[in-house]
Amino acid sequence: MTFSLEKNVYPVEFSSYQCNSFVPVEVKQEWELLWQKRFAETGPESTISPRSVLVGESVIIVKAVSELMIFDLAGNFKFMENTANPTPVVMGADAVAYFDNAEGLVYQDYDQKILMESAVPGFGARAYALLIRPTIDDVLGVVQDPGVRSHREKSFYIYRFLCRDLD
After folding, report:
1. Distance of alpha carbon 5 from alpha carbon 3, whole angstroms
2. What is the rounded (10 degree) CA torsion for 74, 81, 159, 152?
3. CB contact set of 9 (below 8 Å; sequence gap of 6+)
């Protein structure tokens, strides 16, 4: 299943939707460096600010302020995508879900193929996504609009919509 989280060790920021950072792996006293990359190796003009690392069964995603960098497990850089800032990111078994700069939800596989793009209810110029929980059939999410003092009230939108035409 595209958005199965079962075999991904760290599929979302803080590792779980409860934001408790629980990771179901044995803690060891030693570690071995398998690979390392300089961000400049991904592009000579690369000036990203990394925020978190998501670890999956086949890829590693470095989440920056407004970019996603995708690496294979051997440390080879695959591609980078621009994202909305801030955006929740969910790493599934075969695809990643995030919000792009056009303020739409994107499902994309790890070969950079777009599986789905969709506008999101309540998403506007000042609104941002707080949570997404994608499955192959539907998406549950929360969008916040911080409002503008004395012009527009703060509001939240909770939505669930069905996905169509996904592989």
Report:
1. 6
2. 140
3. 15, 23, 24, 25, 55, 56
Residue 11, strand partner residues? none
Structural contact between residues 5 and 52, judged by C-beta atoms closer than 8 angstroms: no
Strands of 95-99's sheet in order across: 90-91, 95-99, 104-109, 114-119
Cα(63)–Cα(46) distance, integer angstroms: 14
Distance, C-alpha 42 to centroid of its chain: 19
Neighbour order of strands in the sheet with 155-162: 128-134, 138-145, 155-162
- The type of residue at 109 is D
31 token code pair = 């570690």
Q: What is the pLDDT along the chain (167 residues), one digit of tens a residue?
A: 456 666 666 677 766 666 666 667 677 777 788 888 777 776 666 677 788 888 888 899 998 888 899 999 999 999 999 888 778 888 888 889 898 877 688 889 999 999 888 887 777 667 778 888 887 778 888 888 887 777 778 888 888 877 765 43
If you search the block for the tokens 């086949």, which residue do you land on? 58
| pTM for this prediction | 0.76
Q: Which residues are bridge partners to 155 per DSSP?
A: 145
Q: 145 with 137: CB under 8 angstroms?
A: no
